Amino acid sequence: MSDFIPPYPIRHKEPLSPLKTLQYARRDLLSIWSEKSFRLQFMGTKIINRSVFIANCPQVVKHVFVTKHDIYERKSPQMRKALKPLLGDGLFISDGATWKKHRKLETPLFTAEHVAQYSKVMVEVAEEYVQKWAKLPSGTSINVLTEMGTLTAEIICRALFGNHLGATQAAEVISSFAEYQAAIEQMDFGTFFGLPSWMPGLQWRRAKKAATRIHVIVDNVIAAGIKSSNEASLLAHLLRLRGGAKDELTVKQIRNELIVLFMAGHETTANTLSWAWYLISQVPEVEQKMHTEIETVLASEPAKFDHYANLTYTRAIIDETLRLYPPVPILSREASQDDIIRKRPIPKGSIMLVVPWLLHRHELFWEQPNNFTPERFLPDAPVKPDKFVYVPFSAGPRVCIAKFFGSVESALCLAVLARNFRLTLPAGTKVTHDCRLTLRPKDNLPMQIVPR
Ligand code: HEM
């Protein structure tokens, strides 16, 4: 076991009052928890007339995500409100019959066979970054989060649109997304607790303008795609669900789904890769084991999908990174009916939270929960993580549709880049987090490139 404990925010001795919780939450969602939150199994409180519960053990998480999925299928009202101008009825925020139908139609697009196709794009883009970094003198400082953000945005753009999105349009989509997200992040963090959200009118206008720019570009790409294309892009697959007797999706729905996939599919992997670079750089034995594995598995071949299965230690590093820094650290739902959990009534309209940040560091379910120990995810580890305690991709019917895509992308990109470079943290750099809709390293994580 490594004895490296990466930084995490202080934990309060006693639980905060609801008012204090809101004050802290406004600045940082990871700073609201008390020591007890990492030991208790089910918690409830009332914040301004809204009942809020936290499912904090495998039995209750299973109840919420699987057994009573129908009751807790719906995202919190504020999450839906914040994302609707951009995503419309897209998968991420829809529920009921629309969600069921779209989920069923899109699930086949993420089978291992399809991910093997998309993996070519993953490796192609990662190799382009190898070329780009190779031009930099050794010791050059780069912003790791920014680099990983553009890398994964490029991958998802090519996987979604094939060759139909030119470089200028891709840059416009990426920057409009960043603008939309910056605007909605101005929302009060009460969002997660289901309180009425506050967002200045100016930010709404900014968000809506950014959404319109994205809609126009994606609509044009779809129009071009309709005329040509029998290729393997996600756009082409979605277009095949259109027309003919079945006519499963309208053009507008296809646009919404493409935008969902873009939104959900790049920042999560960018954050994962960035945290992984930081963690590896702090433990030389882990870095060394990973290099040895990459050299053995890839040898001198170009990386490919088949290598993924054999990158056992690299995958364990990614799994452990997702445990310590889950990109989506809080999952929130609204109860659509009354329920009872552990003899406590859960009134309809309550907010139910599943918090990977707590579950992944819970004292009852992990040994040395705050240590960075990739070995716990190796196939021969003595204890297997419970699938309702380790939930970086959520669980149950609403689990991340692209869980395998994201895992393959993270491991292959890390392998391709780490085969050629180490990233080192300048002495004295203090790494900390920024927790908004996703959990990322603060200040873009400057590190230095060293060729291997
Ligand atoms: C390491 C990478 C990733 C992580 C950690 C991750 C995590 C998650 C989580 C936790 C959820 C559930 C959110 C909730 O219930 O509130 C989710 C949903 C989703 N993710 Fe991912 N994701 C990753 C990569 C991706 C990628 C690459 C794509 C697309 C190509 C994607 C597409 C989606 C979609 C469409 C949903 C909504 C599914 C539904 O509601 O039915 N994700 N993801």
- As laid out across the biggest beta sheet, the strand order is 1-2-7-4
Bulk shape: globular
Helix content: 40-55%
Described by strand count, sense and barrel closure, the largest sheet is: 4 strands, mixed
State the CATH class: Mainly Alpha
CA-to-CA gap between the ends? Answer: 26 Å
Mean pLDDT: 91
Oligomer: single chain
How would you name the CATH homologous superfamily?
A: Cytochrome P450
Order of helices and strands: HEEHHHHEHHHHHHHHEEEEHHEEEE
- Low-pLDDT segments, ≥5 res: none
Give a short summary of the structure.
The chain has a single domain, classed as Cytochrome P450 (Cytochrome p450), CATH 1.10.630.10. 49% of the residues lie in helices and 10% in strands.
Give a topology summary:
Blueprint: H1 18-27, E1 42-47, E2 50-55, H2 58-67, H3 77-87, H4 96-106, H5 112-134, E3 141-143, H6 144-161, H7 167-184, H8 201-227, H9 234-239, H10 251-282, H11 284-298, H12 305-310, H13 312-324, E4 331-334, E5 339-341, E6 344-346, E7 351-354, H14 356-359, H15 403-420, E8 421-424, E9 433-435, E10 439-441, E11 446-451
Parallel strand pairs: 2-7
Antiparallel strand pairs: 1-2, 3-11, 4-7, 5-6, 8-11, 9-10
Bound molecules: protoporphyrin IX containing FE.
Protoporphyrin IX containing FE (HEM) is lined by residues 91-92, 103, 156, 260-261, 264-265, 268-269, 272, 322, 327-328, 331, 392-394, 398, 400-402, 405-406, 410.
